[in-house]
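Quick one: co-fold with FE2/S2 (inorganic) cluster.
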Amino acid sequence: MPPIHLTVDGEAVTRDVDARTLLVHLLGDGLDRSGVNVGCDSSNCGACTVLLDGRSVKSCTVLAVQADGREVTTVRGLAWEGEGWHPLQAAFSACHALQCGYCTPGMIMAAKDLLDANPRPTDAEIREGLEGNLCRCTGYAPIIAAVSQAAQRLATDDADA
Ligand code: FES
Ligand code: FES
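Sure, here it is.
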């Protein structure tokens, strides 16, 4: 089959892939995106979450060929306008919203999609927005606090712009 062409974290990529190759394996194994994790074999943990054309997807549920011609963003591509960490990354650190960190990249990408759609979510809306992502360490409270803190920072930055 012909190669696929996609954009990953702003970089144009062309790859030959098998028709059965999953996007999570292309990103993790083929493109060295170490922030795209496999945490289950049942599509329920969310550790593999990336953005596909700006919307969060579990990349273990997407075939690589389905990303042909599209834009993929992993946590590595979540830079903040040259300032280093994105507010979500900074807030996860500040709020101690990770322990082992295995869920964190996927959690942050799901939160990015959530805040893009709903810039000022309530705690209940954050919980609902992240319900597809499991964390086995934190008990979720610091994650909710981090997403809320990032939302406030983003709103402040927008107001100052
Ligand atoms: Fe668990 Fe994708 S690896 S949902
Ligand atoms: Fe360990 Fe979430 S920080 S699974």
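If it helps, Residues 141-160 form the longest helix (20 residues).
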